[in-house]
Amino acid sequence: MNRSTFTALVGGVAGMLATKAYAADSAGSQATPPDAQRVAMVIYPGMTALDLIAPQLIFAALGNTDVQLVWKDRKTVLSDTGVPIVPTAAFDEVASGLTVLFVPGGGGRDVYPLMNDSKVVGFLQRVGPSADYVTSVCTGALFLGAAGLLRGYRATTHWVVHDLLATLGATPVSERVVVDRNRITGAGVTAGLDFGLRMAAKLRGDDYARLLQLMFEYDPQPPFHSGSEGKAGSKVDREARAAYAPLVASAKQNAAIARERLAL
Question: Catalytic site residues?
Answer without folding.
Answer: 138
